[in-house]
Structures are given as structure tokens and as C-alpha cells.
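Hi C.,

You asked whether I'd gotten around to modeling the 547-residue construct. I have! Everything is below, sequence then structure, no commentary in between.
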Amino acid sequence: MRRRACIAWLLGQAAGQQQWAPSKHGGAPGAAPQRYPPNGGAPGAPPPRYPPNEPPPPQRYPPDAQQPQPYPPDAPRRPPPGYGPGYGPPPGYGVPQQQPPQQQQQQRPPPPPAAPPARQETGPEAVAPDAPPPQTDEEEQDYLSEETHAEMFEHFDKEYFFGELKKLYKRRMLPLELASRFGHFASVPMGPADFDAKPMVLLLGQYSVGKTSFIRSLLGRDFPGIRIGPEPTTDRFLAVMRADDQDRIVPGNALAMRHDKPFAGLQGFGNAFLEKLQGAEVYGCPILDNVTLVDTPGVLSGAKQRLGRDYDFPQVVRWFAERSDMIVVMFDAHKLDISDELKATVDALRPHAQKLRVVLNKADQVTPQQLLRVYGALMWQLGRVVSTPEVVRVHLGSFWDRPLDHRRGSDTALLSRERDDLLDELRNLPKNAVLRRINELSRRARKLKVHCYLIHYLRKQMPQFFGKEEKQQKLLADLPRQFAKCANRYGLTRGDFPDVDDFREALLEIDDLSKFPKLDKSKVTEMDRMFATDIPQLLEKAMAARR
């Protein structure tokens, strides 16, 4: 009986719970799901953590009570097993585990007392609270020296830089020049002396305009091989250089064969030109410690210029202009006529217009009114010859070893300032030698890149077996169009292409274009990387080496 009563009571309890237990939708059993939950939440929201009628469980610690710490802050702690009194690991043990952040914070020393706030200044020397501290005199001087190139390269290891630059040229550019015969079309390969040479100043002009007197005024004395007169006296190219012991004359053939001088490339002009080349080594002139002066024959007019010389005068001038740091073209205040021969010579200097300086000599021999008219006439003449949008700077003066003439009422103060400006540019040439070498080498690399792709493009147009001569003649006749196609195909700049007539004349001496070796484009990429990465890194190393 007792067993039956217990079973009946359990069945009754189970039936009552099933009748009143809520469904999964929150309603009575069998009821439809409610649109909104009974607790007012959003549909699908999770059920509350605690039933609404039951209070939450009591917290373990009251809100204001401090939680108990495992160790009091000042109580001595027992070292872990296996560690010494100073918590140092015994031999064979690893590094002990780091302490909890709370304990590390308790062991830190108290921070120092905060400094009183600085008094705000209202004067012109006030500094903002977040601004960097003002620079000292030494720091400001270093900052200015980095902004000025000339002063920056005063503290520069030029020997290290030029030594590494030679290696880069020999490894990255020289193989391309030899494979593409760049020396036959443009310029012969550079030698070590071209990097180590002092800045060169080239003097040009008609005969008896004062070129030799200008060199004499700079040196302050006569030099070997000097000839001054109203007639065409200088009949040769004369390089005035520094001597170690005494004055001497160096013949042209010996000068071109010296490895420590940058004149080895002149051997390509033949023996007829080398007979008209001399070197004058002068001892005891401070200005020659920094520059080399090159005197040239006067530009003649008419048939004398073409027939009286056994060498190509414009080509020789172009060779010197490529390696010069400054080109001085001198005019006489009494002779302003620019002949066709002088115009052809100035046209050869067009790629080097940034080096050009014009000097109006013997300006103290005319009155101020005449000087004004002479200056205007010279600018009009230069506008016909020098086809540049910028105005050419013209230096006025009287460059010889005598004081200025006051008898004609010339402005001696103005002429003295003009003379000082030109001399300051000459003195600053050694300071800018590094940047000028990089600029010239970069220009040479752009021309070399265009030359390599141009020879590669023309070589691809040649047939493999028959009809090579006819095809080469067609290419020579259609060079302007081939230049445009090559520029579009390889993404080259048209301004870096050579002159069409000069390139055609050099190409006529090549029998077969197909004999050129195939272009290795990876070498061209290495040459581009030389100027993008290697030379900037070399500049930084040279600056660090000097420091």
C-alpha cells in the first residue's frame, strides 16, 4: 500500500508541473509565441541572468571593502623553493617568473614631487610649453651648414667619395660604354684623372679681347708661354696648372699621356692638334691650388678660322666645355661683332649654358654713356646667339694688372663690384666640385642610356642574312622617325637624344649595325640604381667618414 501511494503521489506532482510549466516561447503550454518577451527586451534577446523576482546573490566583498592581499606590503616573503634569499636562480634553474603587476607597482619607489609650473613669458622670447628647446649657437650653425651645399661639403671626405665613385663608374657604366661604342658617338670613357682633377675654367672669345691678360691678373705675375699683343698672339690651347717646384712648359703630346692630368681624351684629335696644345706649370700661385685655367686661340672670322687650322676647333671646344666647371666668354667694348665662326662656337656650348659667363672687358676705356650703349648692343647680339629664355649674366670690368682708368669718368665702384662678383664665383668652384661631378656623371648616364637603347633598336631592325647594307641606308635616311619610335617604345626622353646629323655622321663609319652585341638590360637597370641608391648612400658615408 505504501508503495502504491508513493507512485500515485509522484505521478500527480509530474502532471501538475507539466500543466503550469512555461513553454519555450515564455507562455503557457500550447500557447502561441509572444510577440514581445515578457521582460520587455528585444526579440531574440538572451534571458536575464537572474529571475525577475529573485534578488541577485550577495557579493563576495562589499563595494567599499578592500580586497585581502596574499601578503601584506611590508611583510617579508618566503623565497620560492630552489631559490636563494635574494630570489636569484640557482645553477640549472631558469629565469624566475615575473611578479604580478600589483606587486611590482607596490615595490616601485614613489615618484618625485612635481616641479612647479614654469612662469609664462609674454615677451618675444617666450617659448610654448610643447615646443622643442631653443637651439644653441653650435646647433644652429650645423643646421645652416646642412642647408648650404657649399658649406656642407667643406666637411666632406672628397678623397673617399671620389675613390668610391670611380669604382661605381668602372663597375656600372664603363661596360655599357665599351659594348655600345659610346666613345665613338659622344665622348671617350672617363679615366681616374677626370674624377680627381681640379675645377677647370675655359676662356673663349675673339682675338685681342683680353683672355691672356685676364689670366695674368688672376695669377699676379707672368707665366710660361705668355704672349700679349694687339694681334692674334695666342695660337694654341694653353692649360695653366700648379707646379710643385718650378715653372715649366709641357708639350701637348706629353701632357696628353700623363695619367695624373685630365687631358688623355685629347689624343683622339690627332697629332695636328696636339702640336697646338701646351701646359704651363706655374709655381707659387695660390689660385692654381684650386682651379686650372685654359687659354684658347682667338676665334677668327672668315676663311682663316676654317682653313688656317688643321683640327676641328668647335669639336675641341666642345670637349673642353664638357669637362669645364665654368666657361668665360669675353668681349671687347670696342669690338662687339659676333662672327659666324664665333656663333658656331657658342652653339657648341648650348648643352652647357648653366656654366656660361659673359665678360665685357675694357669697360673703363669708354665713357658711361658709351658703356650704356655698348651694353645694350651686346645684349642684343647675345639674344641672337644664345637661344635661352633666361637673360645671360654679363660682368662688366677691366681685367688686367693695372688699376682702373678714371680719366673717362667711369664708375670705378660699379666695375670693382662686378669684378669681385666674378672672382667670388671662381673661389667657390672647389666647394661645389662634388655636386658638379655628380651632375655631370648623371648627365652622361642619361645620354648613355639613350644611346644603348637606340643602338639596340636599330640593331633589331637589321636583317639576319641578306640586304643589310640597303636596310642600314634606309635607317640612316629615316633617323628622325626611328628616334621617335625608339623613344615611344622604351619610354625615353626626347631631350636626351643626340643630334640627328651628328649621330648620322658617326653611324656612317659603322659598316654593319648587326655586329653590335645584344644589349643586356639588367646592366641598364644597375646603372639607374647607381644614381637612385648607391650615390646617395655614398654621400652619407663620406659625410660620416669626415665626422
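If it helps when you're writing up: Residues 207 and 298 are 4 Å apart (CA to CA).

Thanks,
B.
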